[in-house]
C-alpha cells in the first residue's frame, strides 16, 4: 500500500511538472509573438515616419491597440485606422497601384478569404490570393497575411519588400512598440509548392 501511494505521488509530481512547462511555453510563445529579436528604438513619437517603400511611409503607432483616427482618401475611400497594419497596406496599394478594395472593411486576417482555393480571385478585395503553401512563389509588392493568435486575434498584414531564394523580407506597420518595420522570414520549396515558414501566414495576395 505504501508503495502504491509513493508511485501515485511521483506520478502527480510528473504531471505537475509537465503542466508548468506547458504554461511557460505558452507564455513564451505569446511574448515572442508580440516582440521580435531586432528591437527598434521606441523613442519615436506616434505618427512619426520610420520607414518607407516606394515613397509610401510606415508610421510609428506605439502600442498595438492604439488608434488615432480613420484615414480616408480625398475621394472617400476607407484606407484604414491610423496607424494600424491594415492602414499601411491599403495606403500602399492605393498610392502605388491606385488600387481600391471593393470591400474596404475588415481586420487584417479578414483580407484573406480562407474559403478560396489556391490561386483564386478574391472578388471582395479585387486581388488574386495564394494559399501558404502555393504553386506560385511570393513576389515583391505582394500582401502577406497572418492569422490571429492568442496575443492578437485580429491578425497582421504586411507588404513583401524583397524576395530571395530561401527567404522573403516584409515591411510592416504596427507590429509592436519595439518591433522593427522590416523582418525576414524563411521560405522553402516543398513538393513543388512555395511555403513561407511561419505557421501563422495564411497566404499572399497581388494584382493580376
Topology (elements, then pairings):
Layout: H1 2-34, E1 49-53, E2 56-59, E3 70-72, E4 78-81, H2 85-97, E5 120-122, E6 127-131, E7 143-146, E8 156-163, E9 167-171, E10 182-190, E11 193-196, E12 201-206
Antiparallel strand pairs: 1-2, 3-4, 5-6, 6-12, 7-8, 7-12, 8-9, 9-10, 10-11
Report on the architecture of this protein.
- The structure is a single chain.
- The chain has helices spanning 2-34, 85-97, and strands at 49-53, 56-59, 70-72, 78-81, 120-122, 127-131, 143-146, 156-163, 167-171, 182-190, 193-196, 201-206.
- The chain has 208 residues and is of the alpha+beta class.
- The strands form three sheets. An eight-stranded antiparallel β-sheet has the order 5-6-12-7-8-9-10-11, covered by helices on one side. Strands 1-2 form a two-stranded antiparallel sheet.
- It is globular.
Helix count equals 2
Strand tally is 12
Q: Low-confidence parts lasting 5 or more residues at pLDDT below 50?
A: 31-39
Share in helix: 10-25%
What radius of gyration results from the CA coordinates? 21 Å
Features:
8-stranded antiparallel sheet; alpha+beta; globular; 2 helices; 208 residues; two-stranded antiparallel sheet
Outline of the structure:
The chain is an alpha+beta fold.
Amino acid at each position: 500500500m505504501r508503495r502504491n501511494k509513493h508511485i501515485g505521488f511521483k506520478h502527480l509530481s510528473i504531471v505537475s511538472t509537465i503542466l508548468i512547462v506547458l504554461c511557460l511555453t505558452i507564455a513564451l510563445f505569446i511574448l515572442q509573438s508580440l516582440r521580435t529579436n531586432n528591437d527598434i528604438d521606441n523613442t519615436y513619437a506616434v505618427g512619426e515616419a520610420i520607414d518607407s517603400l516606394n515613397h509610401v511611409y510606415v508610421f510609428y503607432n506605439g502600442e498595438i491597440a492604439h488608434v488615432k483616427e480613420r484615414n480616408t482618401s480625398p475621394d472617400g475611400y476607407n484606407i484604414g485606422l491610423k496607424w494600424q497594419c491594415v492602414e499601411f497596406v491599403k495606403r500602399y496599394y492605393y498610392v502605388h497601384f491606385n488600387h481600391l478594395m471593393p470591400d474596404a472593411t475588415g481586420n487584417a486576417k479578414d483580407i484573406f478569404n480562407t474559403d478560396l482555393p489556391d490561386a483564386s480571385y478574391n472578388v471582395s478585395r479585387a486581388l488574386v490570393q495564394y494559399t501558404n503553401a502555393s504553386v506560385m512563389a511570393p513576389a515583391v509588392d505582394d500582401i502577406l497575411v497572418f492569422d490571429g493568435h492568442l496575443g492578437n486575434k485580429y491578425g497582421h498584414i504586411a507588404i513583401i519588400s524583397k524576395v530571395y531564394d530561401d527567404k522573403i523580407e516584409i515591411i510592416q506597420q504596427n507590429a509592436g512598440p519595439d518591433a522593427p518595420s522590416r523582418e525576414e522570414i524563411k521560405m522553402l520549396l516543398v513538393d513543388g509548392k512555395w511555403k513561407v515558414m511561419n505557421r501563422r501566414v495564411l497566404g499572399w495576395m497581388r494584382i493580376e
